[in-house]
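EI: anyone free to look at a 125-residue chain?
SC: sure, send it
EI:
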Amino acid sequence: MGLNRYFDFTRRQLWFVGLLSATAVMLATFTFIRSHASSQQAPPEYAPITTETENNYEGFFQVDINTAPLDSLELVRHLGPVLSRRIVEYRQNHRFDSLADLTNIPGIGPATLEKIRPFLKVSAE
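SC: here you go
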């Protein structure tokens, strides 16, 4: 026998080692296939945040324009770094009472306000 050249196994021990090796290979194959098989489940749908103020607009996140830092405002669609910086500079001297106050900032008109309205909110403080 091949293994008995190097080890002194009985026939019974050789069968046991062979059975144990075959079982290990089958379990490893099963584990590999199970861990790499992808299920066809659809990703979960997240409900958007809705606001009860100002026309029930919907967005996936809302930033408070009175307290949000500059980098958070820059993430808002249609704002960018220039308008975000203007908002931060404006709120150093003024407080936003409503989203309509954003039209006081140069570069934000009624059309831009309607585009960014779903992503912004004004704190009640």
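EI: The beta strands are 49-50, 58-59, 63-64, 120-121.
SC: 👍
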